[in-house]
Amino acid sequence: MAQVIAAIQQKGGVGKSTLLCALALVLARAGDKVLVIDTDRQHTCMDFHDLADPGFDVYAETNEDNVTEVVDRLRPKYDVILIDSAGIDSQMIVYVAAAADLVLIPSGASRPDAAGAIRTWKKIKQVQAISGRPKAVQIVLMNHNPAARVTANVSEAYTTAEAPLYKAGLPSLTGFKEMHTTGQLPEGAAARHLHEFIQALRADKLLGGRRGKTKAA
Ligand SMILES: Nc1ncnc2c1ncn2[C@@H]1O[C@H](COP(=O)(O)OP(=O)(O)OP(=O)(O)O)[C@@H](O)[C@H]1O
Ligand SMILES: [Mg+2]
């Protein structure tokens, strides 16, 4: 049974697709059978998949009416299913959240991104209250400068809102941009941060797959 991980943020351009493409490739390379369900009409993850020889599958024939059924049907065939979503408030993100074990809310270090992340988190808490899913939700800082004052300010805003900001994220590095033109994993500093992020998720039992111990709910 696959663990289902979704990237959801009502605000666009925050790193949802970048995070999921990177996760998909790392997990596939580690030997997991990985499916990416791309519910965004921009098809960023599908384009990434088509660019190289990724070793993971992609499925993009979803809509609000079938996404829950598609996830249920495909879960037994994979170790990990990653679901990308469009950066808008929609009924689709409710269905995607309810289908997920873990929701990651990517967010850059800016006020508008933080406002979008907090709105998204509150919405997902409502989904949790109704459906008992997702089991876990974490805000992930993307495309940020860890040393910048704005990053500290945004982190404080999450603390004040009692929102779950994850301890690891993916800072602003060219390697993460290049992924979308090469179809490959980044090298150098970006590769190190990606590795640390994934190690942290595994250590916190938020990431399963064949190498992790987390069981899908
Ligand atoms: N850690 C990072 N370092 C550098 N660039 C990044 C990082 N994360 C994301 N980006 C860049 O930011 C831009 C937006 O990222 P991405 O497409 O992943 O966001 P998104 O939330 O999926 O957007 P959309 O809402 O349009 O689907 C892309 O150009 C991407 O390469
Ligand atoms: Mg996207």
- Give the overall form: globular
Here the CATH topology equals Rossmann fold
Q: Count every beta strand, where a strand is a DSSP E run of 2 or more residues.
A: 6
Strand content: 5-15%
Unreliable runs: none
Summing up helix and strand content along with how strands pair, one would put the structural category as: alpha/beta
Protein described:
The structure is a single chain. This protein is 45% helix and 14% strand. The chain is α/β, with parallel strands linked by helices and 217 residues long. The protein has one domain: Rossmann fold (3-Layer(aba) Sandwich), CATH 3.40.50.300. It has a 6-stranded parallel sheet, sandwiched between helices. Helix 2 (44-51) links the parallel strand 2 (34-38) and strand 3. Helix 1 runs parallel beside helix 2 (44-51), helix 2 (44-51) crosses helix 7 and helix 3 (67-74) runs parallel beside helix 4. The mean pLDDT is 95.
Topology, element by element:
Layout lengths: L2 E5 L8 H14 L4 E5 L5 H8 L5 E3 L7 H8 L5 E5 L6 H9 L2 E6 L3 H21 L4 E6 L7 H12 L13 H9 L5 H16 L14
Parallel strand pairs: 1-4, 1-5, 2-3, 2-4, 5-6
Bound molecules: adenosine-5'-triphosphate and magnesium ion.
Protein name: Plasmid segregation oscillating ATPase ParF
Pfam family, one: CbiA
